[in-house]
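[step 3/7] inverse_fold.run input=structure_tokens len=256
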């Protein structure tokens, strides 16, 4: 399938927040310059508070830069849009809708459900919840609910998929399965994916690029292209080299 023709630019983007407790400000992001394209899978890693989620929220249009510009295909991002879909660490489902209706929700809202019912079936199969289709979110485990939240965002094939630690709360087995499922869907749709993760292996396993950030002020310290074919072998020498490079950038490099 052709790559989604999307270019996202962050141009000298800074974001400050006023602190509630005193007159100080937090420099969550300082002059971020990035150009990202459809077909890329961007992993964002860095210590707590370096501004990873802030970048996603700016791209989603949930917040605005203090200075600088965020633009998609040259158009400044001013508000949220279904073309830029966000998945949070905590699943956000509609409690009054069944699993099946939660998944179909965005297609329905965009008037695209008719003729696309098979897509809902496919998504149910992908997450292995066909037999839970008529259950409500309150009846699901945390991992199941997150799988539903994920495919609910993926189904409308957004140009930009924003993943804020979507797999953080899952057990290791489900997590690895979901990594492959997300990659499969991303590969088929060739959208621009941006994923925040605290797991360096996950960042390398999934990303075409790993962007390493540091805090105070939030900034990019490395932008590393992962030039390995999928599926990647977590134990290969190249993988281990990438891991060491990223851990060094995160100041976790030990003597070898
Ligand atoms: N709405 C807000 N009001 C005030 N400060 C905020 C707000 N949102 C973020 N911040 C501050 O901005 C900085 C960056 O936050 P952000 O959530 O982007 O970091 P992060 O890298 O995603 O962290 P974590 O890995 O812990 O999720 C932090 O110091 C945070 O306290």
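[step 3/7] decode complete -> sequence:
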């Amino acid at each position: 399938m052709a790559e989604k023709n999307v270019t996202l630019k962050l141009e000298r983007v800074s974001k400050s927040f006023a602190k509630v407790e005193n007159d100080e400000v937090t420099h969550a992001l300082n002059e971020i310059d990035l150009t990202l394209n459809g077909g890329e899978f961007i992993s964002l890693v860095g210590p707590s508070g370096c501004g990873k989620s802030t970048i996603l929220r700016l791209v989603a249009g949930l917040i605005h830069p203090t200075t600088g510009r965020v633009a998609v295909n040259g158009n400044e991002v001013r508000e949220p849009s279904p073309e830029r879909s966000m998945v949070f660490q905590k699943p956000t489902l509609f409690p009054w809708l069944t699993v099946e209706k939660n998944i179909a929700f965005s297609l329905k809202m965009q008037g695209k459900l008719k003729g696309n019912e098979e897509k809902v079936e496919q998504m149910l199969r992908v997450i292995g919840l066909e037999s839970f289709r008529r259950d409500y979110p309150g009846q699901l485990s945390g991992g199941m609910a997150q799988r539903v939240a994920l495919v609910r965002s993926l189904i409308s094939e957004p140009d930009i998929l924003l993943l804020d630690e979507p797999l953080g709360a899952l057990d290791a087995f489900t997590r690895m399965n979901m990594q492959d499922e997300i990659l499969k869907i991303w590969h088929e749709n060739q959208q621009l994916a941006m994923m925040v993760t605290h797991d360096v292996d996950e960042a390398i396993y999934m990303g075409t690029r790993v962007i390493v950030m540091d805090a105070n002020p939030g900034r990019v310290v490395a932008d590393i292209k992962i030039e390995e074919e999928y599926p990647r072998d977590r134990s290969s020498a190249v993988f281990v080299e990438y891991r060491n490079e990223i851990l060094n950038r995160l100041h976790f490099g030990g003597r070898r």
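[step 4/7] annotate
Helices lie at 52-60, 99-109, 117-126, 142-154, 172-189, 200-206, 237-249.
The two ends are 43 Å apart (CA to CA).
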